[in-house]
Amino acid sequence: xxxxxxxxxxxxxxxxxxxxxxxxxxxxxxxxxxxxxxxxxxxxxxxxxxxxxxxxxxxxxxxxxxxxxxxxxxxxxxxxxxxxxxxxxxxxxxxxxxxxxxxxxxxxxxxxxxxxxxxxxxxxxxxxxxxxxxxxxxxxxxxxxxxxxxxxxxxxxxxxxxxxxxxxxxxxxxxxxxxxxxxxxxxxxxxxxxxxxxxxxxxxxxxxxxxxxxxxxxxxxxxxxxxxxxxxxxxxxxxxxxxxxxxxxxxxxxxxxxxxxxxxxxxxxxxxxxxxxxxxxxxxxxxxxxxxxxxxxxxxxxxxxxxxxxxxxxxxxxxxxxxxxxxxxxxxxxxxxxxxxxxxxxxxxxxxxxxxxxxxxxxxxxxxxxxxxxxxxxxxxxxxxxxxxxxxxxxxxxxxxxxxxxxxxxxxxxxxxxxxxxxxxxxxxxxxxxxxx
Length: 437
What we know:
Belongs to the homoserine dehydrogenase family. 37% of the residues lie in helices and 28% in strands. It has 437 residues and is of the alpha/beta class.
């Protein structure tokens, strides 16, 4: 057996991911030592309750409630406890104690990333966070390292497994949102309180992280436009399918070129995507990130976006990288945010739309609607009309599905308001962006 240098590893948190990381560190200790060039010694696991039931069997003597003492003297600190505090406090303590840190904490990085990265820069430590954006999918290193010499133009990501599971079943089975959400909760894909997932908060945090890396710009969480999927229903799914689309909750990070110079847009919302696009074939609770770069072209990263053992894979990759850096020596590589591109509001984004309206089934209605759209600088690409019958068999109401050419979001929003206020539109059923082409 090779006599490797030993590195002390502290683990904060022993939930679904943390317990798997601890188990794999112990189970594959020899292999990891060969790959890292150092023996990774798990010196302790900080938890709130040392007697709580764990997903895997671990020695009780590894557990402690004293995170601060565990951090001191550790070479690598893995934070998998989640939340903002005390995770932020512990990571800063670890950095100031001379440790490199590995974290999967998307909420913390999306809100306090600059503070964490700056603290690491001050002491020459490094922050590793591959598991924070897309679970097991390797996307952080490709953006930070592999594409560092390229110019990323656009990222479209399905980065929340819960919402993809829900939308996929609604699309493939014709199920209703509430029924699939209940199934997702029973299966453990969704929390008892699913707000963070279905309202897009989780995806927005990941979008902020991805955009910061891709565009070398600090992206505050409050600069990310966010919409959830709770308004998506069976009729919208049916209309999307009929038009050759599928609805996905997308994180879109885009470089824009305007007369005033370059800027970026970061947004999360349900959108239509052509069924021929690679992202349309992402099923179940899987995630995928589609990257468009100036030189490299189109790149697709696909895999499990969550799960204890799957996410543990990304965490352990970071641990090996941190160990190799310790052996090689030198200061950590800081985050590049010097581009400092302005972040524009969603109103300045240009894309295509599908507008669904219920209107009076009378002569001249379509001409009136076309006039309102034209006045709002929104050009019609396609129109499909169906008659909505009432319970007594009378018509009187028609449903219009209008596809547009590219339009400015602000123009589209104002035009939809005018349509809603017109005398011929009974109801604006839905407005969905069309992404991917």
